[in-house]
Amino acid sequence: MSWLDELKRQSTPSAHPTKPMELAPQAERGGSVGFIGSAQEGAEKLPACSGTQTDGDALVAWTSDDIERFTHRAAYLQRFRGMEDAEAERLAERLTLRDRSGDDRRLCVECRHHQPGRCLNSRAAGLNSPELSPDLAALWQRCGGFDAL
User: Fold this and answer.
1) pLDDT per residue over 74-113, tens digit each?
2) Which of 36, 99, 121, 140 fits as disulfide partner to 145, beta carbons 3.0 to 4.6 Å?
3) Within 13 Å, how many C-alpha atoms sit on residue 85's CB side?
C-alpha cells in the first residue's frame, strides 16, 4: 500500500465544535474558553481582533524587516519622544501594520520636524502656527511638510 492510499484511509477529525476546553486555574483571570472545530453555517460572527489587529494583514506573520523596523521605532519613540514602553510598542505596531497595508498617511511623531507640541516646518505643513496639539499630532495625515526620520 502506498503512502497516498494510507493517507486516504485515515479518518479526519470532526469539523464540528466539541466541548469547551478547560482553563488552567492560574489563567482564569485573563483567559477565555475556546472550541475546537469550525463554526457552523449561520453561526454568530465574532468581532474583529481587538487593538490594532483589524485587518487581514495583522494576522500574517511579520518578516525580519517588519520586526527590525518595529524594534527600531519602539526604541526611537521611547528614547526621543519620551513614550512609555507599552505606548511606544503599541504605536510602533500600528506603524508597522500601516506600512504593510500600503497606506501613505503619516503621524507627526515620524517626522524630522516634529517636537512635542511643535511643528518646526509648519508653513510647508499648511499650519497657521508652529504650535501643534496632541490631537492633531495623533491623526493619520498626508502632510506637505513631512520629512521621514
Assistant:
1) 999 888 888 889 999 999 999 999 998 889 999 998 999 9
2) 121
3) 0
C-alpha grid cell for residue 62?
511579520
From CA 106, how far away is CA 119, in angstroms rounded? 14
Tell me the CA end-to-end span of the chain in Å, nearest whole number.
63
d(CA 28, CA 31): 5
Print burial letters for 59-78: b (CB count within 10 Å at least 16), e (below 16): eeebeeebeebbeebbebbb
Q: Which three cell numbers stand for residue 86?
A: 507599552
pTM, two decimals, is 0.57
